[in-house]
Amino acid sequence: MSAAGGVALGMVGGAIRISTPFLFVSLGECITEKSGRVNLGLEGTLVMGAMAAYGVSFLTNSPWLGVLAAGCCGLVLGALHAALCARPRVNDVAVGIALMLFGVGLAFFLGKPLIGPTAPHLPSVSLGWWSASGQVRSALQVNALFVLGLITTAAVRFMLRRTRWGLVIRTVGESADAARAMGYDIARVRLLATMAGGFLAGIGGSFLSLFYPGSWNEGLSSGQGLMAVALVIFARWDPVRCLLASLLFGGASALGPALQSVGVTSGYYLFNAAPYVLTLAIIVLTSSRDRALHGQPAELRLAR
Question: Among candidates 271, 281, 235, 267, which has minimal Cα distance to 251?
Fold first, then answer.
């Protein structure tokens, strides 16, 4: 295989592999923001989910129980965020930052005994079975959570657009006064939406510790939770666009390792900055007076 082909294949594999946590966090934040609330604490939820998944997988010898535990941790943190934000004169952004620091710190404290032990990992689905090339088969080893993420994307899109619950969430996010006049409990709707968003973010964290990179350590996330929140804005609060944006960011993240695999080592750290440069460039290019707030729930524009 040529060097260019190797780089392209590496980026495709990286897009599939690295995009998974971004996908789950961005889908969770999409649901939360559709209800008119911002949760910047999903970085802490991601790390806490990774720690819980690894610990439960190690103790029970079942990675899927670890995934469930990660989701439950995210659900609890989401409920805490919603409960605090429902108080008078409490700012969503400030609470999110506080819970991000709380979640990261608590995960590092509770996870210290997990740094050494090895826990069972999540299974893979081989999409490269048709190829005789070991490189192709290795690049197309898709984690089961990525497949679940594709299903979740379709389910979230269907829920938001085609169900009564989705209509309620969008109504609350567009006009809390109108939703209140229709008899809906705004705090309850936002509580459930934030809990659902936290649950998905926690599952995204389980991918980091149970598949890639597949271990528990204190530098596991590298800000992926915060970046996924930014991806929701870039995706214009649309689940399918969240999927595409996650794949794009995953491919950009794999550029550095893909070039290194074919012997290109000069400027390695510069290539590793590609996803951040790409994100900044896309936001600048797609932001205009006409499109800057396209798709944004109206309640997010109100300072609370």
Answer: 271
